[in-house]
Specification:
The protein has eleven helices and twelve strands. It has helices spanning 4-35, 44-56, 101-122, 141-147, 213-227, 266-287, 306-318, 337-341, 364-369, 373-395, 397-409, and strands at residues 61-63, 72-76, 82-87, 127-132, 155-165, 180-183, 188-197, 236-243, 254-263, 290-295, 323-326, 346-353. An eight-stranded mixed sheet has the order 1-2-4-3-5-12-6-11.
Length: 413
Amino acid sequence: MIKADVIEEVRGVVGLAIDDADQDLKKKINQELHQHPETGYQEVFAHDTITQFLEDRGFAVKRGTYGLATSFEAETGNSGRLVVICAEYDALPQIGHACGHNLIATSSIAAFLGTAEALKKSGAAGRLRILGTPAEEGGGGKVKLIEAGAFKDGVAAAIMAHPMPAHQISGPNAAESYDGLAGLKMIASHKFRAEFRGKTAHAAGEPWNGVNALDAAVAAYSSVGLLRQQIQPDERVHAVIEVGGTVPNVITDYTRMNWNVRSPTIARADELLARVKACIEGAATATGCELNYIVAPTYANLTANKALCEAYASEMERIGDKILLRNDKAVTASTDMGNVSYVIPSFHGAFAIPAPPNTSLHNPGFTAAASTDEAHERALRCAKGMAILAVRVLLDEEFASEAAHDFEHRHEW
């Protein structure tokens, strides 16, 4: 266990390092990313901006890592346990950083800088890596990074945190307000596209010679709409028609739908997926269309690590933040960090930022909230807690073993 005087000294080093970088992080990372939103696997500006920022601070950065053009990594230390701090930076189409990934990048980079300085000053063994993880918004960047070996290098813990509207973090007593959440839980999600292929014909002159792919898409959408009456309250199914045809006087011969099928666990998500596919396949049969699935990476449900969550909550409370230890009921949203939480001990907390009432993630109102000075301040406060958490994993053998034990034996905490 780290001695009290040592951890107190570490807190000072971490706090000073992050405070010193505050304005640079705000201007060169947070604001720049917010003003230049990019969707998954297209985050060229974000990739170049972040890697240049790290290189300017003396870190050797690898660009385009693990076969992904917009992934990167930088590492410090050359022996001992390895902690990975994950950074996200992709945005949503049309509504920009409505999930606040500009703040995730800011907090993760700040945590990396603070931990790196503490590790350097301590002179102790330990390896710290920041990993750029593109395309969290549906592209499954972390799933691809797992498959490419990014988390196979004896990683003791992966750490990151996500912004949330303050009014959406609530405990058993709804009247209580919290500054953050340690054990954030999210549900599993199957993601796929369904293509329907029919046959074109003149819609007025000879409609009987056509096979209408738009009818198939509409029938699939309607059938799943009816299915929703018989699914569990904590399950979700949603879709959009990405390609729906061209002009009304031509029978549509091709449509494409984009689907999410979500449930609290992978096992339940698999069962729900089978029911949804029965609706889709029934629509293809009814209309005479050919059906093809394009499958995207599945997101596992995000699990919480007890040791890591308790340590983070305790640390944040030292600096005056009230942290909800965990949400017993999973948030009905999904993240590819869930897949990481099944591979290694993981921390994926949440920090509260001010947002207007009735404003949630993936809402233009949250895009605006993610650009405020208050949100930036909250991101850096969270970064200090994550940095101390990383230091404890690196330097405290007993604590690292406890986190590993919780991962192996209490995965569903």
